[in-house]
């Protein structure tokens, strides 16, 4: 269907999600169209709300592509008279698509889209047969964005990895998994590494510098500039802190040095998305470097500095303890956008206890934005934060939901204490 419209010289309308996965998804489709000599028009949105569908339905395009979103809205999208492709991996609605709508979603084949295929992956499946295996790596950038790589890729992601290796531009090798090995001084590379977290070092520039000094390694130059023996010393020492710090690294050697590592590419897109700089993210993924990339790296730097401040804050203050949950509360403007990451990494970096879910609360005028994070261990014991936050917030006129391990909600400010006590009760019941 996509090919037909490119041949007809139609301008193709893309609508995608605003996170790293959604931006990569738009990138996969847009690059494929561009390579075939076609044209497109992209809009990036935080959510596919009814008014977004209403607005685009007034436009006169022959083909609409919704990526990393749309599966929950098949009923509304069926009303579009033009051709439609939905390439998503979220839970689909029950509605059958009409003849002019192609619906690509792993759940339709009994495959768990939260773990084995991303929105960028579904989008890749749309273009794969147009001889586009060299775009497989972009699908995996999206999978990294949605945290689908716990040690290794599984399911369809694994097949996409094979495609990329076959195409010859994607390589897999074992290496140290610290961030920005080429452009940041080593002590920052270590302190900025979130996945896997390095307890005692993640978020702690001071500790990281101290450890390197003790080892007699120059902390002020980048990892890649170290002597080989120094690299080995650093590796051995970090493996003692967390063995997972040495493992599979996915890279595109022909890429610009700062985009070579797929996980890092994904974190740069994420930084653009969080700052609503969608145009910047798209120009990078469409191949523009130099200025756009400099801008994006600045955003990433600022984001990492904010996170470091957040980690300092929780190291200093700790979390407030209730029976079955612990919580963080802040009225700081910077912290509100990073609360979920601080809560999650706070546990994995052992800055906070990982025995109870962490609930981050940020005040926004008369409301409170809630971000909850649990661990795989807590989920295995029965915790479902998506359900707990949905049930607790609705009691106070708020709303919430998400995954079992990570979820969010919005509640009125005055309900704060009662909400926390109810949530504590719900989580206690889940753990029974
Ligand atoms: Mn996604």
Report on the structure:
This protein is of the alpha/beta class and 432 residues long. The chain has three domains: 2-169, Alpha-Beta Complex (inorganic pyrophosphatase (n-terminal core)); 184-251, no CATH class; 318-430, Diaminopimelate Epimerase, Chain A, domain 1 (Roll). It is built from 17 helices and 13 strands. The chain has a six-stranded mixed sheet. The protein has a five-stranded parallel sheet with strand order 2-1-3-4-5. A two-stranded antiparallel sheet has the order 6-7. α13 (291-317) packs across α14. The radius of gyration is 22 Å and the shape is globular. It binds manganese (II) ion.
User: How many individual β-strands?
Assistant: 13
Ligand catalogue: manganese (II) ion
Rg to the nearest angstrom?
A: 22 Å
| Average pLDDT metric | 95
Q: Which runs of at least 5 residues are low in confidence (pLDDT < 50)?
A: none
Q: What form results from the Cα inertia axes?
A: globular
Organism: Methanobrevibacter ruminantium (strain ATCC 35063 / DSM 1093 / JCM 13430 / OCM 146 / M1)
Protein name: SsDNA exonuclease RecJ1
EC number: 3.1.-.-
Domain DDH: 13-127
């Amino acid at each position: 269907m996509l090919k037909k419209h490119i041949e007809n010289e139609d301008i193709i309308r893309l609508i995608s999600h605003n996170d790293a996965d959604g931006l990569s998804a738009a990138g996969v489709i847009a690059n494929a169209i561009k390579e075939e000599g076609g044209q497109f028009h992209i809009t990036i949105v935080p959510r596919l709300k009814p008014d977004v569908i209403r607005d685009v339905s007034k436009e006169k395009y022959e083909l609409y592509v919704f990526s990393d979103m749309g599966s929950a809205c098949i009923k509304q999208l069926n009303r579009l008279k033009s051709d439609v492709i939905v390439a998503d991996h979220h839970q689909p609605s029950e509605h059958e698509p009409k003849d002019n709508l192609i619906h690509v979603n792993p759940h339709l084949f009994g495959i768990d889209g939260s773990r084995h295929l991303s929105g960028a992956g579904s989008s890749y499946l749309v273009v794969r047969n147009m001889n586009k295996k060299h775009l497989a790596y972009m699908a995996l950038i999206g999978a990294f964005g949605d945290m689908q790589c716990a040690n290794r890729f599984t399911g369809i992601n694994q097949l996409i990895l094979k495609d990329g290796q076959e195409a010859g531009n994607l390589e897999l090798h074992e290496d140290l998994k610290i961030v920005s090995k080429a452009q940041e001084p080593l002590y920052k590379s270590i302190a900025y590494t979130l996945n896997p977290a390095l307890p005692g070092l993640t978020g702690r520039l001071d500790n990281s510098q101290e450890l390197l000094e003790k080892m007699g390694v120059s902390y002020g130059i980048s990892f890649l500039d170290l002597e080989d023996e120094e690299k080995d010393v650093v590796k051995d020492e970090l493996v003692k802190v967390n063995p997972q710090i040495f493992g599979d690294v996915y890279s595109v050697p022909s890429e610009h040095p700062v985009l070579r590592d797929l996980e890092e590419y994904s974190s740069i897109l994420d930084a653009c998305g969080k700052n609503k700089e969608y145009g910047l993210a798209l120009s990078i993924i469409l191949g523009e470097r130099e200025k756009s990339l400099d801008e994006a790296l600045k955003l990433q730097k600022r984001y990492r500095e904010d996170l470091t401040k957040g980690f300092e804050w929780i190291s200093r203050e700790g979390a407030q303890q209730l029976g079955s949950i612990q919580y963080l509360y802040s009225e700081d403007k910077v912290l509100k956008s990073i609360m979920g990451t601080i809560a999650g990494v706070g546990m994995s970096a052992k800055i906070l206890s990982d025995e109870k879910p962490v609930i981050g609360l940020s005040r926004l005028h008369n409301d409170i934005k809630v971000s909850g994070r649990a661990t795989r261990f807590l989920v295995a014991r029965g915790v479902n934060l998506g359900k707990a936050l949905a049930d607790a917030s609705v009691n106070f006129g708020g709303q919430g939901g998400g995954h079992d391990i990570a979820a969010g909600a919005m509640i009125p400010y005055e309900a704060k204490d009662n909400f926390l006590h109810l949530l504590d009760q719900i989580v206690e019941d889940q753990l029974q």
